[in-house]
Design a protein that fits this description.
The chain is mostly helical and 231 residues long. The chain is 74% helix and 0% strand.
């Protein structure tokens, strides 16, 4: 009985995944770009919330968790390596474009966004380059669909990055009573990706070892130094 229900659940999920697949065509790319623009608008408007409070809702676009989750979801629903790269780039570039474009517009009306009438060209270029990097990362991640033991390593990477940031945010939450929203976001998506990709990994042991090693590596190389200097 349990196996029958499990098979039905897998079939339903498979149909849902196929329905949401992003096609490698102009229409699909346009939709992804528009969604990226909307995401950038939401992230910029979150700056109206205070950063140094318990929830710190304005942190959503300043930390890497949202970017990791976005690239992972985009890659997961893409139809090819090239499609994954293009989709991730367009999503992230659309987000970058609206994020800094809206800041420039809001700067004329709200003091907290004041930029002396200047567009933040340096940051816009920086995150545009990072958008290209996200596209390259997505192209590589899509190889997790290959029936090869190395897919276990690729599947472990997104959850590892989110766990590393989640641990860092948890430390800040405990010590400074900040970043509750980002902490919950990171751990929730780490759990979602961790469980989903564990089922797909060809070598479960390699998957778990990779997740533990990469989580520790990213935390001590990236997040721990950041915590010591920023808080």
């Amino acid at each position: 009985m349990g196996n029958t229900r499990s098979c039905k659940d897998c079939a339903i999920f498979s149909r849902l995944e196929n329905f949401m697949k992003l096609k490698d065509n102009f229409k699909s790319y346009t939709i992804v770009f528009i969604v990226g623009i909307l995401a950038g608008v939401v992230c910029r408007l979150s700056d109206f919330f205070p950063y140094e409070d318990l929830w710190s809702l304005s942190s959503i676009a300043t930390l890497y968790g949202f970017w990791i989750a976005s690239v992972t979801v985009t890659t997961f629903f893409s139809s090819s390596n090239i499609g994954a790269a293009v989709n991730s780039f367009l999503y992230m570039f659309g987000m970058t474009l609206s994020f800094y474009g809206l800041k420039y517009i809001l700067g004329f009306f709200f003091a907290q966004f004041d930029n002396d009438g200047r567009f933040q060209t340096d940051l816009f270029i920086l995150y545009s380059v990072l958008s290209v990097a996200c596209g390259v990362g997505s192209f590589i991640l899509y190889f997790w669909n290959r029936d090869h033991v190395l897919n276990s390593i690729l599947y472990a990477l997104p959850a590892s990055g989110l766990l590393a940031e989640g641990v860092g945010c948890l430390i800040i939450l405990i010590n400074n009573h900040m970043l509750l929203a980002q902490t919950l976001f990171d751990f929730a998506f780490a759990l979602l990706f961790g469980c989903l990709f564990l089922k797909r990994a060809k070598n479960k042991a390699l998957y778990m070892v990779t997740m533990a090693a990469v989580t520790a590596l990213v935390f001590f190389i990236i997040y721990k130094p950041f915590l010591l200097t920023a808080f």
